[in-house]
Amino acid sequence: MLFLQQAARDVATSKKRNELLTRHQVQYPDEVFWPVFGLYILQTSPVYPLCNAIEHLRAMPANWSATPVAAPDAAQIEAAQRGLIMLMLAGVPAPALMLLNDGTVAAFWRRADAYASIDFDADGEFAWSAASTLEITSGTWTGGAMPSSLRDIIGV
After folding, report:
1. pLDDT tens-digit profile of 90-100?
2. What are phi and psi of 96, to 5 degrees?
3. Which of 17, 59, 126, 143 has the most CB atoms within 10 Å of its CB?
């Protein structure tokens, strides 16, 4: 929950600074523009590493597989950014990000006995899977209440 509260404060601060930028054309070196929401994100924000990771994936996709890996296009970047905001609003801890071969950005959480991932598909249906020593579940999420089996694995 602390992650969400800090992010909300950062968004409020960004809105105030955006107004200043419009009025005074002031530049703040500790901010990065996040285009999908038209906001500047503070580099000290817990959201910043995720924004930065998405931009890194777009610029230089990892070549971790035997087949070529596509860089995410604008729709895939927007889907990932929207998905991350939806996760924050659901009170989910910050995930690690990964890039799928087709350019889809995905997030994952790993614990000793459990793993969960969610793919931020450009169509807005986010496929997820969760596995623990006792069960494997999967489905899609489009926002709102997160499926309980996914929440349990992530540890929300």
Report:
1. 888 889 998 88
2. -95, 150
3. 126
